[in-house]
Amino acid sequence: MRATSTPKTMLYTPPTTEQLADLKQTLGLTGKQMAELFGLAGDHQWRKYTGGQQPREVSPQMLFFAMARLELDEATISRILQRMRSAGATIDLSGAER
């Protein structure tokens, strides 16, 4: 999307808890690894999206972030992170503090 384009309203339906469980199984990841993939603090946070009385819905931004990490090469991810930094963000996917 270019800066001159008009943003469109997005249609989004989040994955169900069953679909998230299927994704976890397909990827062969632990709850902790899924939390890391989605940018969450830990597996206890991941469980909030996959169970309980009222599980949280995965936002489109979270899902995009996770899928981008699965699909994009390291060079592309690095360029995006650098662009985020140039916009004023502090980000380190390893969780290292400065």
Write the layout of secondary structure elements.
Elements: H1 17-27, H2 31-38, H3 43-50, H4 60-71, H5 74-86
Helix pairs in contact: 2-3
Kindly report how far apart the N and C termini lie: 32 Å
Domains counted in the coordinates: how many? 1
- Proportion in helices: 40-55%
Uncertain regions spanning at least 5 consecutive residues: none
How would you describe the overall organization of this protein?
This protein has 98 residues and is mainly alpha-helical. It has one domain. It has five helices and no strands. The protein has helices spanning 17-27, 31-38, 43-50, 60-71, 74-86. Helix 2 (31-38) crosses helix 3 (43-50). The longest helix has 13 residues, at 74-86. The protein is globular, with a radius of gyration of 15 Å. The model has no long low-confidence stretch (mean pLDDT 91).
Give a short summary of the structure:
With 98 residues, the protein is mainly alpha-helical. It contains 5 helices and no strands. Helix 2 crosses helix 3.
Keywords:
single chain, 98 residues, mainly alpha, 5 helices, globular
